[in-house]
Every structure is written in C-alpha cells, then in structure tokens.
Amino acid sequence: MPLRWLGAALSLCALGWSVAWWSTRQALQLENHLERALALPFQPLGRPALHPDGRIFVVVGGAQLMALEPSGMLSWNKRLPGPVTPQPVLVRSDLLVLQGAGQLLGYSLGGDPRFAVDDNGEVGDLPCADPQGLIYLLDRGGGLAGFGPEGQLRFRTELGLLKGRRLIVLPSGQLLAAGVPEQGPPLLVLSEPTGVVVARRRLGAPAAGLGVSPRRGELAAVAAGTEVLVLGPGAEVVRRVGLPAAARSAPLLLRDGSVFVLSEAPGSGGGWALCRAGGSCIPLGPVAEAAELSSGPLLGGDGRIYAAFHAPGRWLLPGYHGVLSATPAGGLWRQALPGPVSSAGLTLGWDGAVIAVVDGERYLWKLALTQKEDAYHPWRVPVGNPAGSSHPWPANP
Hints:
Blueprint: H1 2-28, E1 34-39, E2 49-50, E3 56-60, E4 64-68, E5 74-79, E6 89-92, E7 95-99, E8 103-107, E9 113-118, E10 128-129, E11 135-138, E12 143-147, E13 153-158, E14 163-169, E15 175-180, E16 187-191, E17 197-202, E18 207-212, E19 220-224, E20 227-231, E21 237-242, E22 252-253, E23 259-264, E24 272-276, E25 281-285, E26 298-299, E27 305-311, E28 320-326, E29 332-337, E30 341-348, E31 354-358, E32 363-367, H2 386-389
Antiparallel strand pairs: 1-32, 2-3, 3-4, 4-5, 6-7, 7-8, 8-9, 10-11, 11-12, 12-13, 14-15, 15-16, 16-17, 18-19, 19-20, 20-21, 22-23, 23-24, 24-25, 26-27, 27-28, 28-29, 30-31, 31-32
C-alpha cells in the first residue's frame, strides 16, 4: 500500500513538473527560428565580420584569426601577435583590421599581414571605417585618430575624451564621438572625416551608446542617462525622448520615429530590459553584465527588433538563454539557445539575419528571417562600425 501511494505521488509530481515546464515555455513564447548552426574548430571570442560574398572572419580561442568559406569550411587561420579586441573590422574588400594593445593590425582577406602601426589604442577599443576605406579610432589618450588604407596616420585631434569612449561613422561621412574628460561634464563631439571639430555639446550623463537615424532631418542619437537625444545635421537637439530607466546601450532608431534601447529593468532590482522610449519595456533578465562590445538592440532584415535574453530557472524548472525577437508593435517570440549569448552580443548578416555567439559553444547560430522588409535601411550597426556589415562594396544588398 505505501509503495502504491509513493508511486502515485511520484507520478503526480512528474505530471505537475511537465505541466509547469510546458507553461513556462508557453509564457516565454519559445519558438524555433533557427536556420543554421555553423560549427567552428574553436570557440569564437567575439562577433564575426561578414563579407558580402559569404566569407566569415572571426577571432577564436588560442589567439587566432580565422577565415571560413560560406559553406563553413576553414579557409585559413592566423596566429595573432597578442591580445586583441575580438572583433575584426572589414575596411575594404581586401583589408580587415584588429585593435591590439597599442597597435592597429591590418590583414589581407587571404590572411597576409599588411601593417602593424602604433595607434595608442587598447584592447577593448573598436576601430571604425568609412566607405572610402579610411579608419578611425578614439584612443586612450582621448584623441580622435584617422588612418589611411595602409595604416598611415592622417591626423590626430585632441578631444580629451578619456573615459566611456564611444565613436561611430555617420552616413554623411562625419564622425560622432562621446566620452568623459578628466574634468568637467560628459561631452558629445561631431567632426569631419579630416578631424576638424564641427560641434561640441555637453551631456547630462555619460553616453551609453550612439546610433544613426534613418529619418530625414535627423543625423544621429545618443542615449545618456534616462533620455535619448536625437540630433540634427549640426548636432543640435531636434528631439528628446524619455526612458523609464537608465540606458545601457546604443539607441536603435526606426523610420517611424520610435526609439528602442537596452536599459536597466524598471523596478525589478536587477536585470535588463528592451525599452521603447516613451513606452513600455520587455524584461530580458541578467543577460549583459559585461557587454562592452554589445550594440544593443538590432533591427533585422525582417523589420523585427532583436536582443539577448535570459530567463532564470525556478525550483526544478530549467532556465533559458537565447534571443528575443519583437515587432515594433509588440508581438514577440523567443529562440532558446544552448547557453548565454556572449557579451559580444549579436550581429547581422548582409541579408539582415541575426547571428549569435554563445558562451562555451563552438558555433555561430543564425536565425531565419520571418519575412523581408523592403523599407529596411543598410546603416544598421548602432555602435561604430558600418563597415562591419553594411559597407557598400562590392554591392549593397
């Protein structure tokens, strides 16, 4: 008799766990949108750089730069001379660069070293490139440096931006930089490609990130504190939009004027959220503790917004990591992945599909596009490297 009762109790527990597990997945709106898992010989350390012809360049464990054919077959790998920011930057159709400890490293797309020049940068800095193949860096001395296609120094303009450095190349070719000087308030600086400063503006809080705007009459935006400042052609503020909590990423601006940003989850006591400026937030969980390279939310080629999420486990129920996808109107689903999305965050293919790097996994995970958005604009990388996935050579898809 006791054994029968024990068996019945265990059966009820198993049934209850199954119901709770199913309910959790339903509540999270987990769906399968995985298109491909590309196996790598080593674990990727950062976001890949993607060539329009499908080739992939990625920094992996063992201090190596690796190139893959579109099929995923290894093309070549190159031992790096030391630590680097683990994200290659595609500058031209025949050149990529990496930021090392005080040096800018250039390689051909066949893996041959092209140059190694002192640039006063540090590991963690991310160079930018414009459509003409010119390279820019906001260095650790607070200066804006410009380099030519062969690594030669073109200019260095002292800006005094020593901490919290942010830099992007704008569609106009101008450069937008932000940071905190040794003394005084945080600053925003707009300059020409020659390094000539066009405008300076004080900020009320350090910049969490910079983003470009696809709207006519708007140049870019900066997320700082609990607001996003949208800038006009002369860096004048043309719009201010409030946030429910402090911003922690670059802003994502859409054609309809809406603005999305990753922020502290309002009132949760911890974790992050995907927030629409002036609107509501979607909790993401504790997903980006060290996301210095994270670009924040991304706009996919299907017009959906993507960000990493983590739903912690409760009691005996498993937790889930992966990618959240939401429409601007609020419809969403989540794609579970086998581990936490890397602090390097997400990136976009030339077709606008999201690619994720997962901590501890030797794969690149590509999500399928749910549809193709005709109004999708190519300047889609919010933090500083349009050359990484929207450079106009050899063709703008």
